[in-house]
Amino acid sequence: MALDPLHALQAANRAALPATAAAAGTLLIAGATGALGQELLRRFAGNHRFSLVRVLSREPIRDGMRGVETCLCPELPIAQWALTAADTAVIAFDPPRLYHGRERALWVPQPFDLPELSRWLRASGVRTLAIVQPHDQGRLPEALKRGLASLDEHAVVASGFERVILVRSARKPLNASFANLAERLAAWMLSIMRFMVPSSEQPVRPSKVAELVDMALRIAPPGVHVAAPELVWQAAQGEMLPVVRRWLGLAA
């Protein structure tokens, strides 16, 4: 049975990896929901690489472990939020699971929040920003998979971060609702197209996406780094470090 993300924090504390020699300041997570959010929480709270992990929340939650705290988001436009203190931030677009009550208390970013949220994060002192964007198979031209795909992403880069890591993680097709039989028939006829998607664009396990984000935060040089869905898939197939180092242009 899947764990509640706050329970995952407690489990991570009991089975934590050895701390690094020097904790890398404060990490703030926006969108700590869904399977991906749970894995991000589990990984970053468990390895104690950051001295403090903050999680954006809509409602007060009693923090479950040392070194992790919630940051309450008021019902106001993001531009009116009080500034917090963080060095690194991760934004994950993964909707909450309705059967996890705690996830409903966490703040969930929407794609249209990205420019304003990035400006708030930069004003809060964030220098490194990692964004995990869900990628719908076949929606982006090849060139845009490896670069900035929207004006919102350009606005993020223009905010002045030292490092921006954008991970395009393929997701399963969303379940659509249809108004009538004709629409359902058309959708069924077109569903054959999903078998034509190359394996390199198939979704990978959230734990592997979280591992890639963690590794990129550790070793990425200054600049903008975009991981296409094919690279995320390739990194998940075997030893991840060589793939990530090639992507970031680092010597083997």
List strands and helices in order, with pairings.
Layout: H1 5-14, E1 26-30, H2 34-47, E2 52-57, E3 68-72, E4 88-92, H3 114-123, E5 128-135, H4 142-145, H5 151-157, E6 163-170, H6 181-190, H7 206-219, E7 223-227, H8 229-235, H9 240-247
How is this structure best described in words?
The chain is built from nine helices and seven strands, in the order H-E-H-E-E-E-H-E-H-H-E-H-H-E-H-H. It is α/β, with parallel strands linked by helices and 252 residues long. The protein has a single domain (5-247), classed as 3-Layer(aba) Sandwich (Rossmann fold), CATH 3.40.50.720. The chain has a seven-stranded parallel sheet.
Mean pLDDT, all residues: 79
Number of domains: 1
Please give the largest β-sheet: 7 strands, parallel
Query: Quick one: CATH class?
Result: Alpha Beta
Give the CATH topology.
Answer: Rossmann fold
Which structural class do you get from the secondary structure elements?
A: alpha/beta
Query: What is the correct CATH architecture?
Result: 3-Layer(aba) Sandwich
- Fraction of residues in H or I helices: 25-40%
Order of helices and strands: HEHEEEHEHHEHHEHH
The CATH homologous superfamily is termed: NAD(P)-binding Rossmann-like Domain
Number of strands: 7
Task: Assign an overall shape.
Answer: globular
- Separation of termini? 40 Å
Radius of gyration: 18 Å
Compute the number of helices.
9
User: Major sheet: order of its strands?
Assistant: 3-2-1-4-5-6-7
> Which strand-content bin applies to the residues?
15-25%
* Low-confidence runs of at least 5 consecutive residues: 5-22
